[in-house]
């Protein structure tokens, strides 16, 4: 049985078929393989209907949704906790590097913190720095 015919057979249980699809399905049901598949699906669907009510307790959908929401919230808390740790460690590393750079350049400035050379006003006005 091809996939298109199998899809048509499955759809025939839950949706209404147009005339062409209905004729195509009736012609395919002549084949014993398609008929056996249809019978197997009918038996499976009736077994599911019988056991579905007893297998799931009352308010099953609400319990599942509550668990999904709590799992989502737990993942979000875990992610925020991990991000805070990484951000804190990163901030400490940046502060250590900035203080090292400032001590190396013997200056307390933003340029020294990022290890950028400080230019004097005379150098900038004479345009010496950009062409070095």
Describe this structure in words.
It is a single chain. With 132 residues, the chain is mainly α. The protein folds into two domains: 1-55; 59-132. It contains six helices and no strands. It starts with a helix and ends in a 7-residue tail after the last helix. The mean pLDDT is 83.
| Whole-number mean pLDDT | 83
Q: CA-to-CA gap between the ends?
A: 77 Å
How can the largest sheet be summarized?
A: none
- The figure for the number of domains is 2
The arrangement of helices and strands along the chain is HHHHHH
- Helix segment tally: 6
- Give the strand tally: 0
Tell me the Rg in angstroms: 36 Å
Poorly predicted regions: none
Oligomer: single chain
Structural class: mainly alpha
Q: How large a portion of the residues is in β-strands, by DSSP E?
A: under 5%
Overall geometric form:
elongated
Share of residues in helices? over 70%
Short description:
By secondary structure, this protein is mainly α. The protein is built from six helices and no strands.
List keywords for this structure.
mainly alpha; 2 domains; 6 helices; 0% strand
Topology:
Elements: H1 3-14, H2 19-28, H3 32-55, H4 60-105, H5 110-113, H6 121-125
